[in-house]
Amino acid sequence: MNRDDTTDTPAAEGPAGPAAERLVGSVADRDDQAVEAALRPKDLDEFIGQEKVREQLDLVLRAARARGATADHVLLSGAPGLGKTTLSMIIAAEMGAPIRITSGPAIQHAGDLAAILSSLQEGEVLFLDEIHRMSRPAEEMLYMAMEDFRVDVIVGKGPGATAIPLELPPFTLVGATTRAGLLPPPLRDRFGFTAHMEYYEPAELQRVIHRSASLLDVEIDPDGAAEIAGRSRGTPRIANRLLRRVRDYAQVKADGVITREISAAALGVYEVDGRGLDRLDRAVLEALLKLFGGGPVGLSTLAVAVGEERETVEEVAEPFLVREGLLARTPRGRVATPAAWVHLGLTAPTGGGSGARTGANGQQDLFGT
């Protein structure tokens, strides 16, 4: 694999520090990446889940191979850990082409992109992770590269600057993004195939876990896999990470076989509860319920209450809590749902559990947004 002018690790969205440290975080550190590389499926037949995307992509690739042409540019969107990088590698494998991997934040200047594009081989796949974070000059250069397979390299400065056209061999760009809405329409329209990756159902995650356990030479029964799948937040990356931690517990504390009891005990040690919430998630909910009566409370106030940065609460903890229906964002602040009270085994205060909202002087500034 040729990685000249590229980064080894695609940049992750959001605050990398807190997310990378969480067992249920969707950001992969270097150890995770090494293991994930070994567990990644090598073709579409091995890839589990995303049935509609697989079917559509299979048609695109089969047609391109039948024509003897380069595959259309592909845009994959969805949350981290759902398989966008894996699919890009499968696209390259299915087309019998090499793959080049880089990321949007690594391309800060048009010259960075020109250096990568000019070194591509014919038919090569360029995987551009977090494509929405690419600089604007590089983005504008990419328009022409995708459509006409050429770029204009500017030589010199000021009135004497000259644009030298550089022809590029046909290539396939695979863009990945966690925020498709941030892509400008001119860029999005140049992709011949776009797909959105959905969160996995527990049954699909069980298949992922069984496959990974087989590759890791770990014995696991169906109930043990189901227990891990139920706490994996619909994300294969998290499922594989939890499987490895449960494997460690089973080897040290038991006979190495992963059962439901072993899975539950192991994930209890790592503070991952039955719905996949970890320490940070529960800290946010407990502060919202116990300190503020269920809200509404402003994000900054909530962040101070749990001892975290505002961005950490907003980008790391909140998305999953909202998706699980445990927390809601309102114009007045964050509000706990009835399901949050039930999940933590607490009783909502009478009167709706909206918390104190008005001070002695009638001002409403403590719990506002």
UniProtKB/TrEMBL annotation:
Its main location: cytoplasm. GO terms for molecular function: DNA helicase activity; hydrolase activity. Residues 274-369 are annotated as: Head domain (RuvB-H). Residues 70-201 form the AAA+ ATPase domain. It is an enzyme of class 3 (hydrolase). ATP binds at L39, R40, G81, K84, T85, T86, E147, D148, F149, R190, Y200, R237. Residues 8-21 have a biased composition (Low complexity). Gene3D superfamilies: 1.10.8.60, P-loop containing nucleotide triphosphate hydrolases, Winged helix-like DNA-binding domain superfamily/Winged helix DNA-binding domain. DNA binds at R310, R329, R334. It catalyses: ATP + H2O = ADP + phosphate + H(+). Belongs to the RuvB family. Has 3 domains, the large (RuvB-L) and small ATPase (RuvB-S) domains and the C-terminal head (RuvB-H) domain. The head domain binds DNA, while the ATPase domains jointly bind ATP, ADP or are empty depending on the state of the subunit in the translocation cycle. During a single DNA translocation step the structure of each domain remains the same, but their relative positions change. Homohexamer. Forms an RuvA(8)-RuvB(12)-Holliday junction (HJ) complex. HJ DNA is sandwiched between 2 RuvA tetramers; dsDNA enters through RuvA and exits via RuvB. An RuvB hexamer assembles on each DNA strand where it exits the tetramer. Each RuvB hexamer is contacted by two RuvA subunits (via domain III) on 2 adjacent RuvB subunits; this complex drives branch migration. In the full resolvosome a probable DNA-RuvA(4)-RuvB(12)-RuvC(2) complex forms which resolves the HJ. This is Holliday junction branch migration complex subunit RuvB. It comes from Streptomyces gibsoniae. The gene is ruvB.
